[in-house]
Amino acid sequence: MLTNMTPGEIAFLDYCENNGIISEKIPEDNINKTPDFKVYFNEKAVAVIEVKDFNDNDCEQKAIKDFNDGKMSSWGGTIGERYQQKIRDGKKQLKQYKNSELVRILLIYDNRDILTRTNDEYEISIAMYGFETRYPNHNGIKKIFGHDKMMKENEKTYISYVGILNDSGKLLLYENFYAKDKFSFPENQRILKADVFRLAQHPKKQLSGWKLLTE
Questions:
Q1: What phi and psi, each to the nearest 5 degrees, are found at residue 173?
Q2: Residue numbers of the domain that contains 43
Q3: Predicted pLDDT at 2
């Protein structure tokens, strides 16, 4: 079965095995797209997970070759765009469970070369809630989340978290502020052994960073 899986799917299964998490691969449906995994706790299904991989694109592959050849290398792109594309790619699979009470997670595994690999919390927040926008006010400059947001009050509320699985064996979950189904603390630690982050402020009020949930 592993031969038909992506590196991210295999990495998630390894993570589950190493942390005593019960999960099962959901059979693929050629008509209706389904998530990749279902997770169980106390013999009850509690979450579904769609895994997406980051792979080096043409620009990054060239940068890696240049670097290995001893040349100057550079690469780049629009901040947050890569995460947004994975959200677009995985939304239909998670939407199949929008009327359930299961937590729905879009999990990203970074399969890029160590040279080009980046998982920045700021980039994740921009991808989810929009570009950083600044305007003057009586206190100087106010920063807010602006245009091109993926998560809204009435859109994609069926996505509970955007997750990152990294090579260190840690699972990081970034909460969709508007999601209707979420883990409660410390439920996230008991079920997925994950660190869960939430925006420090309401995304409509101001641009803010993430805070680790500890209560």
A1: -115, 130
A2: 2-76+100-129+151-201
A3: 57
